[in-house]
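retry 2 of 3: previous attempt timed out while embedding zinc ion. Reduced batch size to 1 and resubmitted. Inputs unchanged:
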Amino acid sequence: MNMSRKNTQSESAISSHAAARFWRATLSRDARADGTFVLAVRSTHIYCRPSCPARRPLRRNVVFYRTREEAERQGFRPCRRCRPNEVASPVALVARASEYLAQSSEDGVRFSALAAKLGATPATLRRAFLQVTGLRPRELAEALRVARFKKMLRDGKSITDALYETGYGSPSRVYERSNAQLGMTPATYRKGGKGMKIGYTITKSSLGNILVAATERGISAVYLGDVDAKLVAELHEEYPRAEISVAGDSFERWVKEIVQRVEGNPPRIELPLDLQATAFQRRVWQELQRIPRGTTRTYTQVARALGDPKAVRAVARACATNPVSIVVPCHRVIRQDGNLAGYRWGLSRKEQLLRQERLAATPQKKAAQA
Ligand SMILES: [Zn+2]
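retry 2 succeeded.
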């Protein structure tokens, strides 16, 4: 089953054997294939994840790409339902589940039904929930039956906040088990970094030196600067009660990922976070992670997206206190008048980061790199 019209370079890199496999995954809406390819539909000019719940297109209208960047380079737009332009991850799956639950009018939602709606297998969804929220399926299914939980989602709370506030997942349960992006530590827990064992490493990048600090659960700090000693001093200030030492190469993968993101490249792996944060900070930082690379938002837009349009100043404060630059891309938030506003690590770095991301997101530059 080969494509009759091979009209793009990227397409030719996919063997007919792979294309057949991709089509099978597409037909079965196999969520396990998410992130391994996207399908672009010629008749609608949109591209989807394999698990997209939308109606299946005709095979002859479908082109496969290994990455969403390739699809976008060919002029396809991301589908609004499966949002293939967001990092394919358990986090994205849980976010979509949360959106679905908030909109659903039923009082109780069965777990398997929820998975089917999202085009995921129950096993995939279970794994995603366990990773992101730290909840086991039975605890989760119970939470799904609670009307109050659903109301919180409708009111714009994230699924982890809603679970936490309805009493599912004690801090220890949610935050000790979870090491995913949404699993951040509330302020009441481990204040000042008490009990945290943080290792740090300093490396070079086009923005100067980068300090990356992490516990075994996730990244706790990403700082930019020129003077190593200053960066280390800041780390001690941020986590005065933590045990801080120079790390071995235990989180080298994370450091590499951060450095390549600094150069404007798209995320390649998910970076787990281990932070202390208030519920509000957590919501802001999660929102910032949704801003696409190469674009910016204003503080007002972020506040509005959080359903709290008056919270502009609080949003600005949460951006200014973000301890994990790059990973939580607070540099993508600017003032309404286009002014870049401040940046904890210096305005010129913010400027350079935005410029690199914009360049990397434009087709010519990408094609040159590929
Ligand atoms: Zn779709």
